[in-house]
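Quick one from the shared queue. A colleague (R.T.) flagged FAD/NAD(P)-binding protein as missing a structural entry in our internal table.

Convert sequence to structure tokens.
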Amino acid sequence: MKIAIVGAGMAGIGTLRYYIDHIDNPDMEIYMFDDSNAAGTGYPFGPDDDALLLNQRLKKMTLAPWDDKKEYVKYLKKNNPDLLKHEFITRPEFGEYSKDVFSEYVKDSRVTFVPTVVDDIDVIEKTYIIHADEKYEVDIVHLCIGQLPQTDIYNLKEIDKYIATPFPIERNSEVLLNAKSVGVIGTNLTSLDIIMYLHHNNYKNDILVTSRSGTVPFIRGNEAEVDIDVEALKQNRDITIQTIVDIFKEETKKQGIDFHLLTELNDMPVLDSLTYQLEHLDTLGVVQQIAEAMSEVLREVWNHLSIEDKKYYIKHIKGTHGQLTGPFPKMTAEKIVELIEAGQLTYVSGVKDISYDDEFVINSEDGSYSADVMVSAVGPNLSGENLADENNASPLVKTLIEKGILQVDELGGIKITYPEFSVISKAGVLDTMKLYGNLVSTTHINNSGVNLILKKIPHSIDKIIQ
Ligand SMILES: Cc1cc2nc3c(=O)[nH]c(=O)nc-3n(C[C@H](O)[C@H](O)[C@H](O)COP(=O)(O)OP(=O)(O)OC[C@H]3O[C@@H](n4cnc5c(N)ncnc54)[C@H](O)[C@@H]3O)c2cc1C
């Protein structure tokens, strides 16, 4: 049994260790491919500035969700007990643990790490040819390649002062910290990272955070318990999006919270919304716990929903649901409030266009603004014809789509079977080629989290072995 694991980030490490710990085969050969700088950490958790925080409480992080949910806490007790005093730690700190786990497992004599990116794969009957530094013939492929590059909405990629990929942010320090002003495209978690990086490094000039919608993720509320029978709901095959929304509304009402609060928060200026949230962290915690429970249900029932329901969810609900299930730490919010109040940070919404004419010109419904340097924080574009096109370039994904090995799903992302995660090629299902992570997030819905991705890997491997 020859296995290729393409990508040595979180999903790749999870796949590797599941084979080593749970598949009893002394003869298997595992080839793992990645750029040597990224191997062991992936995109978000590599060595970088201390301003970049995990968006989950550290006790929720583990690289072995199937064996030991407390593995990371135990690791810290042994290696860096001081960190356990913190609720949120930095992403590079988590990356030290993932790198240690990777280094440990890669020592197994059945594993070969190939420090090269894969640029093509051929499917020949029941085998695969992996094109890297040389060609490798294998029986099983796990594509653990993370997310596509961030999309270049305004076609700015040729401009020197445009930063298309913010991380590692230290690589961009000179341009950012010497800028007369910094513009950021997008208001999601990456935009908060950029603001916190600038603040942490004593940047004193203007920061403009621009977007079409103007919505910012919510602050992580206080921990809360809610009484929802998630297991029973997961088994309900007749569930619809309306049922899920109704349960959400009912639960918030039971807890004395008006469901309309979410729309009201999104309609407020960012400063007012954050100030309100900071004063109501208990309320937020409860709503987030309900949203989390709904997310857990949704992930299980998603592939039984009608296509209309799925489209409705993606268009009307996913955004707010994501604000609740992907929140950011309170201490970040406090800093953002300080920066807005000091007049250093401005949120510009209703953006129509951004162009370049000696400086970046942001054309919005409220008027025109300018910035010296512009950073993209918009995430990848998974939709249809844009997936892996020149503004979302990923050579391997583009090549595999052109060859019909990967296909774009009707909802965006790449088509797979669920819960096996087998690639659905033009020629049919490839039972021994798996794909995990952001590229399949229209089938493995709302999967942005290390635990969420890793939890699904055992079943997908067990299915092959059977
Ligand atoms: C900025 C940011 C912050 C995040 N913060 C958190 C957080 O705090 N907590 C959390 O749980 N989740 C967080 N996430 C979500 C996070 O992306 C996932 O939880 C996790 O990193 C995804 O794992 P992955 O293996 O799919 O991707 P990655 O960990 O990024 O790994 C993909 C790997 O594949 C490699 N690769 C790509 N193409 C090829 C190729 N052709 N050949 C060989 N190798 C290739 C890449 O170099 C990379 O190392 C964050 C995401 C981002 C973008």
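The chain is about 35% helix and 15% strand.
The CA atoms of residues 16 and 173 lie 34 Å apart.
Added to the table.
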